[in-house]
Amino acid sequence: MFEEFKKFLIKGNMVDMAVGFIFGAAFATLVQSLVKNIIMPPVGMLLGKVDFSNLFLALDGNSYNTLADLEKAGAPAIKIGVFVNDTISFLILGTVMFMLVKSYNTLRAKEEVPPPPPPAEKICDECAMSIPVAAKKCPYCGNTHL
Fold first, then answer.
1. Can you say how many angstroms the Cα of residue 40 is from the centroid of all Cα atoms in its chain?
2. Most-buried pick from 14, 46, 88, 111 (CB within 10 A)?
3. CB atoms within 10 A of CB 31
4. Is the pLDDT of residue 24 over 90?
């Protein structure tokens, strides 16, 4: 059973999938950083110096200055800013993944076009009937000039 499991793990597809997961996790971290540190600050400035990460609605009735203060107090909240940041991260990640898969499928389709198989039949010059390619004489008209 161990040998069978070892063969399963060593298969190329399994290794490729593991590498894909690792790169996917690293890429998701990169996208989150892009959204949090590059995209959202200018958007917040354009919307009146709003820091989206600190947009929340405390459900306990108290007022908190920052999301960190709210989380430190352990108060329940609707974290609107976190949701907006996560939504933008998801849209960016989805767009990039779509473009990668589309590019991969385009390349794969170009590589996998097999040549058409050789014809199995030919047409007799005399009677225009379909006969096997290997035929030396047409069975319909007796033509031998094939």
1. 25
2. 88
3. 20
4. no
